[in-house]
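User: Last request for today: this protein with xanthosine-5'-monophosphate, please.
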Amino acid sequence: DWTPDSFIETTVAALREKLGDDKVVLGLSGGVDSSVAAVLLHHAIGKNLHCIFVDNGLLRKDEFEQVLDSYQHMGLNIKGIDAKQRFYDALAGLTDPEKKRKAIGRVFIEVFDDAAHEVQDVKWLGQGTIYPDVIESVSVKGPSATIKSHHNVGGLPDFMKLKVVEPLNTLFKDEVRKVGKALGIDPNILGRHPFPGPGLAIRILGDITPEKVAILQEADAIYINNLRAAGVYDKVWQAGAIFLPVQSVGVMGDERTYENVICLRAVESVDGMTADWCHLPYDLLAKISNEIINNVKGINRVVYDISSKPPATIEWE
Ligand code: XMP
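Assistant: Here's the final one, the structure of the complex with xanthosine-5'-monophosphate:
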């Protein structure tokens, strides 16, 4: 019978056997899959696992510091890399969603490749691939698609020539969470909403600037913190704020304002393929709207997305 503990025991033994004294490099994203894969590998080979966590400047507010901190507490051998500026430079002036994704994928590969080169004699690339990723590698917008389209253009970066080790590739998401729990991973990491690889770049419509990212981070933090405080976060499959680059008129005191709009999105879903918008309580929406408008400079209007998928996608880009 499958249990998380039996899975951990056999997998750790198999990884030890397979990897011996070899070194493994693995990119952490803050998400469930890469975290569980990393902790399993860490159990098997300890410091021979070298984790890399890239700050692409498109994460949620304070996420890089918080996630890095919790990984360090787990004892992982991890290197945090501040690559914000490289991503902003690559994104400057790009408005097309697919071009933005490709630029982000390309820079991520460059940054990761540089970091992987610093690990002497590394033999393996660790990945948090889970079973649905294996059977459904047709995901149109996933990061692997970005990586593939990049590769058609140039040669393979060196880390892609490494042998691949994927300890979770027989598991479904709920099994990954159970294994993570049995491994003692921070419930805040295990219970996280899905967050796209290109991050806030696909929640800011059109071109990206550090200023827009900062505004969206503030609004998104108010939104997510309120969902948590109201006990709603765990009932929602995915939630996030979107920055709309349109301006509308508002009033503040005697002044007329002309500022941007934040849209709130929250969905219920099983696998992200279809989704329904969540009927969040009006009182909660009112509180979030007031807090955003009163505290986030540059925003004078908040709207709520009442579209389901299909036909609307979960992300706006
Ligand atoms: P959509 O917007 O297609 O999203 O309804 C479905 C799920 O996929 C996530 N998503 C992405 N994840 N890279 C990712 O890693 C991407 O480019 C990407 N685009 C969408 C989205 O957040 C949702 O969970």
